[in-house]
Amino acid sequence: MEGIQIRSVFVLFCITVAVAVADSVTREEAKQLRDEVGDMFYHAFNGYMDHAFPLDELRPLSCAGEDTLGGYALTLIDSLDTLALLGDRQRFATSVEWIAKNLRFDINKTVSLFETTIRVLGGLLSAHLIASDYATGMRVPLYDNQLLNLAEDLARRLLPAFDTPTGIPFGSVNLLHGVDQHESKITSTAGGGTLTLEFGVLSRLTNDPIFEQVTKNAVRGLWARRSKLNLVGAHINVFTGEWTQKDAGIGTSIDSFYEYLLKAHLLFGDEEYLYIFQEAYAAAMRYLFHDPWYVEVNMDSAAIVWPLFNSLQAFWPGLQVLAGDVNPAIRTHAAFLSVWRRYGFTPEGFNLASLSVQHGQKSYPLRPELIESTYWLYKATRDPRYLDAGRDMVASLQYGTRCPCGYCHISDVEHHKQEDHMESFFLAETVKYLWLLFDLAVGPDNLVENGPYKYIFSTEGHLLPATPQISLVREHCLYYGAYCRSGDLRQTYFAPESDKDKKESNDTIFYESWSKATHSSDYTTFEPSAVSGLIKGFCPGLNHGQKFGILYAHLTDESHDYEANQVQQIESTTVQSQSVLVLRDDSSDYLQPDNSNDHNDSQTHESGITP
């Protein structure tokens, strides 16, 4: 009954919210809007360079700077691939050269593992891949892998965070001294599960598997502790594996965990991530989706705990486009957009029961998520309504957030009160997705749409290309040879699976080659199936645990009684998860989904990688 009442309120809200009526965006207007968005970028970028550089971020009202993350020119690093996307060779080359000569990470700073990975590590890797490759048209003269070397140095300083019994990392780490003995043992699901793209790319570029191993192990550690409903909570103890906040949702503290499951599969071709994503996505749609909205529920009982739209949920329709599930994405995007149009922005929280801004969550910190989903839906459908939405967003940003030296946070969306701060992601994501949206309407001429590679966007909007070295590791190794070093421990990374033995490093385990059932203190494992081929529809076949060997972890807290119910959990996983039947196909070394399950093949765009 509660679900019916909530749904009726949702639908009523969607119907009653006023929507601005305007003529559709023409091709000429789209060109003008694209140019306007470019001017927005340079207003903010020049403001940062003139008044804040080399501090981390700009204070756009007072025209000053502040160190917010680590004190290493954060906004410049976060902006590098946007400069390249806009075709600004001079500023891109100058910025790369400055960073190569001046940036250092041997500093006594405690930083967020999550934010440092997605903003700094991702920014360095994306810029390196552009600056080092003639095919991008942005090759920097005399560039000699300096950004890659910096990225590797940074990642090695982050590795101590992963030294936990569960493999799930601490949330913070000191770049000089490692993890402080008093560091909190509580981390978010997104914080532990949104590291695979950046660390995985680094492993492939450096030929060192450790970076990918520890981040994949973190994902496994989180997934092994999911509920019997295949839901994960928001916060977890990295030592005991016990959930300290059991609210399951697609927004705050969890959002990009789902995002990186699918994107890691798309970029690396790793079918284990696809298996986890399919089961996690099916559970989210079953228990969290109240068409067209999403709520937060208890991960064990699915009882609703928060009938709340929070702004970080707005990435979800874009992720659904990548997954090929476009119809619910369209409906959900329309609901989220109605909130934007009501206030001019999306507040951090909007209460779906009272139809009002959630107390204490009235701000809009220039977030890109709704704009990102607008771009992906226009790319999938070419429906002009998304250009109209983009036009409204540009107007809101220009008239509500523009300030003397950049763009300001909005501290209260009901009164449009400005706040003296500009996050680096405004340049890395917000204006990037707006520019791509209108450039696509004009007839795209940019690195993403017309470049030499297909690209995956990181959760920070950084461009990660599907080059052979990144996406076809074994094939690249066999063809070029140079990446298979004899007598080097790293060689095991590129060895065929049939030649791998069980190896452990830094509490990281290679599960794929286990040959018999094993029972450890952390995981109950089963012999994985060494089958590759084509996914043919959805049916009660192999689930993730049967395929890859991880089902549920044992918790040390006996009050949860997981050990006593282990057999029931295993059986229920097979019934409740959305599984796939894998058929042998020796001609194929990857998995391709059959889109017969309400997926429109014309709307997926090569499984979500940009053409």
TrEMBL record:
The UniProt annotation puts the region (Disordered) at 586-611
Chief location bin? endoplasmic reticulum
Q: Which branch of life, at top level?
A: Eukaryota
Family of the protein in this entry: Belongs to the glycosyl hydrolase 47 family.
Give, as one word, the top-level EC class: hydrolase
What are the UniProt keywords, alphabetically? Answer: Calcium, Endoplasmic reticulum, Glycoprotein, Glycosidase, Hydrolase, Metal-binding, Signal
Which GO MF terms does the UniProt record name? Answer: calcium ion binding; mannosyl-oligosaccharide 1,2-alpha-mannosidase activity
Residues given in the record as Ca(2+) binding sites: 459
**GO CC terms on record?**
endoplasmic reticulum quality control compartment; membrane
Cross-referenced SUPFAM superfamilies: Seven-hairpin glycosidases (SSF48225)
The record's EC number reads: 3.2.1.-
Subcellular locations according to the entry: Endoplasmic reticulum
Protein name (record): alpha-1,2-Mannosidase
Q: Which residues form the active site?
A: 115 (proton donor), 255, 348 (proton donor), 369
Its GO biological process annotations read: carbohydrate metabolic process; endoplasmic reticulum mannose trimming
Instruction: Name the coenzymes or cofactors required.
Output: Ca(2+)
Endpoints of the signal sequence: 1-22
